[in-house]
Every structure is written in C-alpha cells, then in structure tokens.
Recover the amino acids of this structure.
C-alpha cells in the first residue's frame, strides 16, 4: 500500500496530547494523522562526526518519525548559509539581506543529497514523497540520482519572487533545473505560481503541455494550494475557559483599553521595526489616543545563531524602549514587547482579547497568524484584522483592512 512520506528540514518534536506550535508542523501532522505515514528530516542535533544517513526512529500513533543529525560544516553551509542567508531573503524580496557563497550552495546540495540517500533506505517503491519548503528545492533531483522512482512533490511555504529578483541569486539556474525534477510543485498563491512558470518559460526555454511545464526533459505540474487553519479548532481553543489564564490576566491589566495585537517569529521579513515606527507615528499624530490604547507585540526569537537575527532583536529592544520612553505615563505603557512564545492553547484566547490584529509582514508566503486571528474571534463581537498586502493571506482575507507596511 502506498504510504505518505513527509520530508521537511526539521521534524518537530511531538508529544501525544500536547499542542504543536508552527504552521508547517500543524499542517504536516494533520495530513499524517489522517493517513498515517512517515515524517523524515533533521533532528535539530548538530554533531562533530562526519555526515551520516544513520537515523533514529520513533512512533507516535500512526506516525513514524525518522530523524538524522547534521554535522557542523553541513549545518553551517546548508542551514545558516545558503538556506537562511541566501534563499530566505531572496524569496522574500529582501535581497539587501542576502549574501552568496558557492561553497554554501555546495553544502545545500550536499544536505539535499544526504536526505535523498537516507530516504532511499526508508521508502518503498509506491510510497508518495511530499517535501516541504525552501530547504529542499534540490531534493527531487537528488532522489532521482539515488535511483528512486517514487512520485515526489514539493510545497513551497514561502513566496516565489518575480524572476528578476530570483535571478539575483547566482545559483538561480541550478535551482530551477533541480525544481523541475519534482512531479508536482505547490505554491501558496497564483502570484507565486505565475512567477515560477514565467521564469521557466522565459529563461529556461520550457513549454506548456496540457497545463504542465515541460523543461529539461521533465514534466512538472504546478498548483496553487493556500495553507489554511482549522477554524472550529482555533475558535474552540480561543473560547475554552481552561485556556484563559493569560487572557484573563491580560484583560485585567488593560483596564478596558482596546488592545492591538501582533504575533510573529522574530524575523526581518515580518516588518516588526516598520510596525513599531508606524505605531509611534500613530501616537504622534493622534494625541487623544494617549493613555487609551495598548499595542502588544509577541515575538519569540528565531534562528538566533544567525547574525542578522540577533541584530534585529537588539534593534527592536531599542525601539520599544525609545517609544515607551517617549510616550509612557505613570499609569500607561503604550507598547508591550514580549520576546517569548506561547503554547497554542494560551495564544488563541489572546487573539480573541484583541480589538485589532495587526499583521504587517513585508512579505509572507501566507501568514497563518492572520487566519488564526480571524478564526479566534467571537462572532458576536469580532475584532478587526489589519493585513499587509504582501502576505499571501491578503489574496483570501479580502474583508481585512489591507495596508502597505
Ligand atoms: P512562519 O513564517 O513561521 O511560517 P506563520 O504563517 O505566521 O509564519 O506561522 C507561524 C505559526 O507559529 C502560527 O501558527 C502561529 O500561531 C505560531 N506562532 C507565531 N508566533 C508565535 C508565538 N509567539 N508563540 C506561539 N506560537 C507562535 C511559514 C511561512 C508563512 C506560511 C507558513 C505556513 O513564512 O508565510 O504561512 O510557513 O505555510
């Protein structure tokens, strides 16, 4: 029988009965819980040993988790280097944050090949391989080189940028050729799919055949599959009295003042600094709101072993201090900046407390916080979503107040 084999850079540690954080993890788990199957990827461990396909196996219900460790040089070149130092900024139109090094690209390919070799020891001929995200753009090419003939698809959680932007990455041609080895490529929005097909048609001499791209001797189907959230589940978490410990404390502390809430990973693509400055501008121009409104930013650190991420954290701490110093009163602090994460069941009730959900990334593949915010609202008394036009979610959530961050 055909099994589902999910491959992502990181396999999220899961414990039965406990909620998982993160959009990718929640989506993957849903699919695996329904069908059963395998989830394969990096354990999160970095070793001093040489790279190896030796894996650890663990079962949780119908799901089997297989993980491998990465050696230090691979982690540096693949994860900190090409994936997060080149691809992530480029895919998010932030080319000013991108650097490039061919040795890091070689490391990226090496890890994709390592994943493929490990998969070759795990999969059976009719298993379906479903890869996730920008870390694995070269996986299908490596899987074919390892001799596997399985059906293989990739879902890209990030945007795919306009060809002129993608081509600022010197490895663009190699990446596109590798991506054309997948049988199916999934994108968040029509804009992302069109950007990809435009590149392949114009720059790689591809042709279209019954809606499929034919390029480099391969046929690849390109689809649009916007990721969503479970509306009922989010609302139930938001409304459950048992989850309201933080929400009640928050409400008491607000003394009836309206709350503007933002929740993001601490990442430059999320436009946090611009958002802080926008709030400052709001206070500057509307003094009658002084003492009347609170803006709370929840942003747990992410990728904190990468320099630019440490930098943005420092920058935001400084901005928050400056803005509060400028406007705070003895009994009112306009900006609350929480540098930490919350469990899902604590976070959803916080969304429901906020009169305004402020979601203003500079670019985002989708942005699940926007969808969670809407789903968490009390239908009798909902808040307002303010949403960046550059989040994939803006294509669907067209009743939000759409802004240019
Ligand atoms: P992310 O960039 O991580 O995801 P997002 O879509 O907002 O962004 O998903 C974040 C998830 O983590 C949400 O489910 C949210 O509830 C949770 N989360 C965020 N901050 C948190 C906090 N402080 N505490 C607890 N939980 C928190 C990538 C892409 C997105 C795409 C998703 C899914 O960058 O564009 O929407 O994958 O495809």
């Amino acid at each position: 029988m055909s099994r589902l084999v999910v491959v992502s850079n990181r396999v999220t540690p899961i414990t039965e009965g406990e909620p998982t954080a993160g959009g990718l993890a929640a989506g993957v788990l849903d699919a695996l819980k329904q069908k059963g199957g395998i989830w394969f990827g990096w354990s999160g461990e970095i070793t001093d040993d040489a790279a190896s396909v030796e894996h650890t196996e663990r079962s949780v219900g119908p799901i089997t988790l297989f993980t491998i460790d990465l050696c230090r040089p691979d982690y540096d070149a693949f994860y900190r280097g090409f994936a997060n130092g080149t691809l992530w900024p480029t895919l998010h139109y932030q080319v000013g944050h991108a650097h490039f090094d061919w040795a890091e690209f070689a490391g990226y390919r090496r890890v994709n090949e390592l994943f493929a070799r490990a998969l070759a020891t795990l999969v059976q001929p009719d298993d379906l391989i479903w890869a996730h995200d920008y870390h694995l753009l070269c996986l299908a090419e490596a899987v074919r080189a390892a001799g596997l003939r399985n059906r293989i698809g990739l879902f890209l959680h990030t945007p795919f940028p306009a060809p002129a932007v993608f081509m600022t990455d010197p490895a663009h041609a190699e990446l596109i050729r590798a991506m054309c080895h997948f049988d199916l490529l999934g994108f968040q929005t029509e804009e992302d799919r069109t950007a990809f097909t435009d590149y392949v048609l114009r720059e790689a001499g591809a042709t279209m055949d019954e809606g499929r791209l034919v390029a480099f001797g391969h046929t690849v189907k390109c689809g649009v599959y916007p990721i969503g959230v479970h509306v009922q589940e989010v609302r139930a978490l938001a409304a459950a009295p048992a989850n309201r410990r933080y929400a009640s404390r928050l409400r008491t502390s607000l003394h009836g003042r309206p709350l503007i809430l933002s929740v993001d990973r601490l990442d430059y693509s999320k436009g946090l600094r611009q958002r802080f400055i926008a709030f400052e501008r709001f206070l500057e121009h509307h003094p009658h709101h002084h003492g009347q409104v609170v803006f709370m930013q929840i942003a747990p650190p992410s990728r904190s072993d990468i320099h630019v991420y440490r930098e943005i954290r420092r920058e935001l701490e400084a901005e928050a201090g400056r803005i509060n110093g400028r406007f705070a009163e003895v009994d009112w602090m306009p900006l609350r900046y929480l540098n930490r994460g919350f469990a899902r069941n604590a976070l959803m009730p916080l969304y429901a407390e906020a009169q305004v959900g402020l979601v203003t990334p500079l670019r985002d593949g989708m942005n699940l916080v926007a969808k969670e915010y809407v789903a968490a609202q009390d239908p009798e008394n909902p808040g307002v979503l303010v949403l960046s036009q550059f989040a994939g979610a803006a294509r669907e959530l067209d009743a939000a107040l759409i802004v240019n961050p």
